[in-house]
Design goal:
mainly alpha, 4 helices, 0% strand
């Protein structure tokens, strides 16, 4: 058993690898990608246009074509053998403080399930 983004598993399965995608009924983890634009970058036009592009439908299409989930409702990523994000039960998001407190138990549970 392994965990990885569904797009990677679907791609691997399409190449004949013995993997399948399972979405846990108690919640899947959504992996978010972050992008940063420097607040004090000298070129304000670049900062504004970069932000607009990253949130634009055009960029969402590039993201979806690469097999990732778009943040734009106009561009729905449909993975062959996968589910749309609105069909997946998502695990609740914990605060960083809650996660830090729970981390030792999470590590122990992981080791018990998958070995060290």
């Amino acid at each position: 058993m392994s965990t990885l983004p569904d797009a990677f598993a679907i791609d691997a399965a399409s190449k004949g690898n013995p993997v399948t995608v399972v979405y846990p009924s108690d919640g899947s983890v959504m992996i978010l990608g972050y992008t940063g634009i420097l607040k004090n970058a000298p070129n304000r036009t670049w900062r504004v246009s970069s932000r607009k592009f990253l949130l634009d439908v055009e960029h969402a299409k590039v993201v979806a074509d690469a097999g990732y989930v778009s943040v734009r409702p106009e561009v729905v990523t449909i993975l062959q053998g996968g589910k749309r994000v609105d069909q997946i039960v998502l695990a609740p998001i914990s605060s960083s403080e809650e996660t830090e407190r729970a981390l030792p138990d999470i590590i122990e549970r992981w080791r018990n399930l998958f070995g060290q």
